[in-house]
Structures are given as C-alpha cells and as structure tokens.
Amino acid sequence: MKPDIETRKDLFLLLEKFYDQLLKDATISYIFTDVAKIDMQQHLPIIVDFWEMVLFGAQTYKKNAIQPHLNLNQKSKFEKHHFNTWLETFDKTVDGLFEGKNAFAAKQKAKSIATIMQIKIAQLK
Ligand code: HEM
After folding, report:
1. CATH code for the domain in which residue 29 is found
2. I want to staple 49 with a disulfide (CB 3.0 to 4.6 A). Which of 2, 61, 79, 111 is the partner?
3. Is residue 3 part of a domain?
4. pTM of the model
5. Would the CB of 73 count as within 6 Å of ligand 1?
6. Whose CA is nearest to atom 32 of ligand 1?
7. Which residue is closest in CA terms to ligand 1's atom 9?
8. pLDDT tens profile 39-62
9. What separation in Å is there between the alpha carbon of 32 and the centre of ligand 1?
C-alpha cells in the first residue's frame, strides 16, 4: 500500500518527479525551456504552493494559475496533445508514488483545471 499525499514534502517529491518525466518529452518540454525559458528550481516552489492551495486549502498561492498559460499560448500554441501528455504524465507520477483520497483528488483537479484552460484557450481563437 502506497502512502497518500499528505504534506508539502510529498508535493515536492511528486512535482519534482513529474517535471523530471515531463521535461524528457521533447513534444512538450520546449514550451518550458524555449518558450517560457523558466528556471525549474524557481518554478518548483510556486507549483508546490499551488498544489498546497488546491489540495489542502493553504493560503500560499494567491495568483491566477491559468493566465500565464494564456499568455504563453499567444507565443506558441497549446495543442490537445500537450494537455494529453501533461495529464498522462501527471496521473502516472501520482500513481507511481501515492494512493488514497488526496492522490485521487489531485488527478481529478488536474483534469478539471486542464479542461478550464483548454476552454479559455479556445475562447481566444
Ligand atoms: C499543456 C499543458 C501545460 C503546459 C505546457 C504548461 C506549461 C507551463 C509553463 C511553461 C509554466 C511557466 C510559466 C511562466 O512562469 O512563464 C507554467 C506555469 C504553471 N502551470 Fe502549467 N502547463 C500546463 C498545464 C498545467 C495544468 C493542467 C496545471 C494545473 C493543474 C498547471 C499549473 C501551473 C501553475 C500553478 C503554474 C505557475 C503559475 C505562476 O507562475 O503563478 N499547468 N505551466
């Protein structure tokens, strides 16, 4: 039996593994490395704050998580396959490390946020 996602440390582990995997996939990694040119070490704590807010109701993340994606989409289009890859990698990483109520909720939330993102991107077209 695997543990559930319970702490900020768990989120760091999950998200570190997730981005490690995601950035190995050249069909999506260029958005991070070439389009957004982000420094993963700076990005990671922000993403952890976000998931701490989503899963545990923490007040650590107070921005709009969707907007940066809409801005990036103006520079380089986000396609359906990007979302599929993102979600598949996220689900696989969660399932590889955790199981339980919060692990399930993380996958559900990721899916619904990705759906909202895609609707907002479609509205821009
Ligand atoms: C096609 C799928 C996705 C791609 C390619 C992608 C890519 C990126 C990139 C490149 C950034 C950095 C933006 C910047 O700092 O300039 C970012 C930020 C972020 N992404 Fe995504 N993302 C995707 C989907 C998602 C989904 C589904 C979620 C949530 C479930 C998410 C949550 C976040 C958060 C919280 C940030 C930080 C925003 C901030 O700086 O406040 N992303 N994403």
Report:
1. 1.10.490.10
2. 61
3. no
4. 0.97
5. no
6. 65
7. 32
8. 999 999 999 999 999 999 999 999
9. 9
1 CA to centre of ligand 1 in angstroms: 30
Q: Which two tokens stand for residue 125?
A: 């077209």
CB atoms within 10 A of CB 75: 10
Q: Which of 25, 26, 70, 19 is nearest to 45 (CA)?
A: 19
Could you tell me if residue 2 is inside a domain?
no
Domain around 25: 8-124
Question: Which residue reads 């107070």 in tokens?
Answer: 62
Kindly state if the Cβ of 110 falls inside 6 Å of ligand 1.
yes
94 lines ligand 1 (CB under 6 A): no
pLDDT in tens, 61-100: 999 999 999 999 999 999 999 999 999 999 999 999 999 9
Please report which confidence band the pLDDT of residue 125 belongs to, taking 50, 70 and 90 as the band edges.
Answer: low
Strand, coil or helix: 36: coil
Q: Is residue 14 part of a domain?
A: yes
For ligand 1, the distance from its centroid to the CA atom of residue 103, given in whole angstroms, is: 19
Domain count of the fold of the chain: 1
- Is 43 within a domain? yes
